[in-house]
Amino acid sequence: MGSASKQSSKSNKPSGKQAGLDRRARIAELRAEEQRRDRRNKLIAGGVAGALVIGAIATGTWIVVDANNKKNAKRAAAEAAANATIDGVKTFDNLTRNHVQTKVTYAQTPPVGGDHNPVWLDCMGHVYDQPVENERAVHSLEHGAVWVTYNAKATTDDIKALSAKVTATPYTLMSPYPDEEGTITLNAWGTQLVVDSATDPRVGTFFDKYVQGKQTQEPGASCTGPQ
Known about the structure:
- It comes from Kitasatospora indigofera.
- The protein is an alpha/beta fold.
- The protein has five helices and six strands, in the order ααββαβαβββα.
């Protein structure tokens, strides 16, 4: 009986050949599973990369469109300002533009054009606390600057508000002008507006229209100069 039991146990064991076949089948199965896993990972990675590329393209397109929209809006605002009608503005034509070393008698107070000194005033947002030479200020107007003047009727708040606006705006200058009739006078080449207060909304409109505006005789000319 012991002999029969040993024979039965021996017959249940797989042969060496069969074990080898089973092992190769298992290895092949594992390799196939690994290949399937690699394909899934590549598909996922490709999908993520595609989504990132699409997102980058969409973002880039949005940035370009947004920049163009802002540029167009800025251009439209500039055109609207250039064509704006401002109540009370006076204009003067046929103003001479000769460089002279002598004092000039001007038809307007403050002057808005005519013969002027060869050296302009610094008008890159410069606020002068004393009266300036007419002849040099007129040269700054020729370069497209807006010159803000005021007399003793201007309040401290007026002067403070106007100074802040001028300081923040290239191609502008400001100075006291005791002899002018109006409290505050805004001057550009051939153009003038008198207001009673810095809070007058026409002040901002005047800046928008006439700082380097269409009246400028020498567009793009320097406004940096001796004080």
